[in-house]
Amino acid sequence: MKTSIITLLLIASSYTTFAQKGSAILGRWLNQDKDGQVEIYKNGDQYFGKIVWLKNPTDSQGKPQTDKKNPATALCSRQILGLEVLKNFVCKTPETYVNGTSYNPKRAMTFNCRIAISDSTLKISAYMGIITLGSEVWTRVKPEQKQ
């Protein structure tokens, strides 16, 4: 009987630990260029991220930055601030998120990506098929850095 209770407690503990670590990605992250912050959140079983802070939120005319490089004319006027740039990531392991996409408004391109989390950094690796196209390292935003 004791063995069964201990086994159940260990199993429950491992699920709780996995759920907590799976949530380690949640929060604000400063991009590699240090000119934007992305808030990562969970919706259902997937993870998404939207731009919540920009170093330069307005253009030279004082108007909000827009997705002006987007080849889809209908999307060129959408504001960068609030733009969802990470979509549909699934937690594969507590440190790895897969099957998502990342939109880069500076290049107006969407890439298939995987995310690896380590301590206070995210490594976002873009790929096409099995070819890695490059990666960026983002850092966690500390509460005093939030704008």
Helicity, as a percent range:
10-25%
**What is the number of helical segments per DSSP (H or I, 4+ residues)?**
1
What is the overall pLDDT average? 86
Give a count of the beta strands, DSSP E runs of length 2 or more. Answer: 8
As laid out across the biggest beta sheet, the strand order is 1-2-3-4-5-6-7-8
What portion of the residues fall into strands of 2 or more residues?
over 45%
Describe this entry's structure for a reader.
The protein is mainly beta. An eight-stranded antiparallel beta barrel has the order 1-2-3-4-5-6-7-8. The protein is globular and about 45 Å long.
Record the SSE blueprint:
Blueprint: H1 2-22, E1 27-30, E2 36-43, E3 46-54, E4 84-93, E5 96-104, E6 109-118, E7 121-128, E8 131-140
Antiparallel strand pairs: 1-2, 1-8, 2-3, 3-4, 4-5, 5-6, 6-7, 7-8
Summary keywords:
mainly beta, eight-stranded antiparallel β-barrel, globular
Structure in a nutshell:
This protein is mainly beta and 147 residues long. The chain is built from one helix and eight strands, in the order αββββββββ.
